[in-house]
Design a protein that fits this description.
Length: 206
Amino acid sequence: MDANFLSEAINTLPFPIAMVATLGWYIQKKDKEKAIVDAEIRERNNKERDMLIASIEKNRLVNEKLLEANQELAESNRILINEFSTKINNIENNVAEIKNKISDANSIVLFDYRGLSVAEVTELRCKLREADSEYKVYKNTLTKRAMDDLNIDIDEYLEGPSAISFSADQLAPIKVLSEFAKKHDKLELKVGIVDGKVTNVEELSR
């Protein structure tokens, strides 16, 4: 309803009635204004609530992703630690094995077996076994660690692949390897250790 029209209509009424009508109109107007303000506040609050809910949901999803990533990282780290521990244990076990074999042997010979055929390697292994000897192949880093622990210096001979023969007999494995090397030039003797003493190739071949 137009305010001017309402004002003119009220002016035609007796004073007391006009006052009541004016008050009623004013209250109605304020109620409408308040309703509009309340509606705006509700709408703003609803928007803020929806934004807050959306933000919480977004944060929840982000946290789930972070938790999943952390779990994957923790699992990856666990696997790496286990692999590293296994590798360290294998290294320590191999070093201990080499040290034990050296300590138990009266003669040790390092030789380069590259170039030998499978059949020749098999033949050599059989001949050494017949002489109560064995040979194994270790990484030079492991052999060096074992030798260092036993205060045996053969670093200059740890170049390229090396096989190591171990025997309780001082002479038998040396004789087998020396004779085999004469018939198979691919086999190269590097150094020997007899009764804890480093022995060069010339001395081994005597």
